[in-house]
Amino acid sequence: MSDLYSQRSNYYLSLSEQRIIIKNDNKEIVKEVSISLVDNVLLFGNAQLTTQLIKALSKNKMNGYYFSNVGQFISSIETHRQDEFQKQELQAKAYFEEDFRLEVARSIATTKVRHQIALLREFDTDGLLDTSDYSRFEDSVNDIQKAYSITEIMGYEGRLAKSYFYYLNLLVPDDFHFNGRSRRPAEDCFNSALNFGYSILYSCLMGLIKKNGLSLGFGVIHKHHQHHATLASDLIEEWRPIIVDNTLMELIRNGKLLLSHFENKDQDFILTDEGREIFARALRSRILEVHQYIELDKKRYSFLYTADRQIKSLIRAFRELDLSLYETSYTGGH
């Protein structure tokens, strides 16, 4: 059993003799697969499902998930499979295991810091940062590993984030210099683009979490509150530098995203339509392209596959309360 991905807006999915048929806008068959071999259907862009296929998905306890062209989660067709309730029970029990949550929080925070180090090294082509600058990050990794509470870890991570964005500011072209992190409103073009990119990544992870039958509300690091996908907020942390920060830096350094692609509305910088299209297209490519994301696995996978695999490993970790079962992401910068 596996997931069926439809990543083109011109695809049309129907059912014929218990087989899912995928056609393009020329009505040519692109792919067909037995419905019995599929767990979930993931649709990107404006791909369409027939009513007959939707009914068959429901009858066979299969879920469908709709994403935008760039990966933002939009909606889902869910059949409330029994094993999803069992997964959520494991997730809820794990939430109240403080020692386990602390271990997972250490792992996520440490991985995020190592990705930040890797990104700074990649873009510090002029050698502006020295050993002492990177030592600040390595020392924080040691502090995180010795932390006695999640609050302590978040304190280290928050202070280090200020250093990270300070150094990142030194590495961007002069036109895109910024003064620290700002969310709403975005006080500069760089933060405006970060906010846009993070919202797409957050939404994409929401969809993958739901696809795997977990609750969005029970996280590990962040506390849950109304209308907040806490688990997505946890999982996004280690992916921010890899997917969003790296993509944005490449666009700016290569002159593909310009100041003219932003506008200032009431002291809030936002991307223009053209700017959103440029950044969204680059993010989509990054989400779908393959890299070595798993340290002990030399194969190359897309972000979508790796994040999905990561969530499945988290479910196993919930079941056994064993951190070693959880797979963190990897960029070779460890």
Describe the structure.
Its EC number is 3.1.-.-. InterPro entries: Cas1, CRISPR-assoc_Cas1, CRISPR-assoc_Cas1_C, CRISPR-assoc_Cas1_N. Homodimer, forms a heterotetramer with a Cas2 homodimer. Keywords: Antiviral defense, DNA-binding, Endonuclease, Hydrolase, Magnesium, Manganese, Metal-binding, Nuclease. The chain is an alpha/beta fold. It folds into two domains: 79 residues, Ribosomal Protein L15, Chain: K, domain 2; 241 residues, CRISPR-associated endonuclease Cas1, C-terminal domain (Four Helix Bundle (Hemerythrin (Met), subunit A), Up-down Bundle). It is 49% helix and 16% strand. It contains ten helices and twelve strands. The strands form four sheets. Strands 1-5-7-8 form a four-stranded mixed sheet. It has a four-stranded mixed sheet with strand order 4-3-2-6. Strands 9-10 form a two-stranded antiparallel ribbon. The two termini are 34 Å apart.
Secondary structure layout:
Elements (H helix, E strand, L loop, with lengths): L1 E5 L5 E5 L2 E5 L5 E6 L3 E7 L3 E2 L1 H9 L3 E5 L5 E5 L4 H14 L2 H26 L7 H16 L3 H22 L17 H23 L18 H7 L3 H14 L8 E4 L2 E4 L1 H16 L1 E2 L9 E2 H18 L14
Parallel strand pairs: 1-5, 2-6, 5-7
Antiparallel strand pairs: 2-3, 3-4, 7-8, 9-10, 11-12
Helix pairs in contact: 3-4, 3-5, 3-8, 4-5, 6-7, 6-8, 8-9
Quick gist of this model?
The chain is α/β, with parallel strands linked by helices and 334 residues long. 49% of the residues lie in helices and 16% in strands.
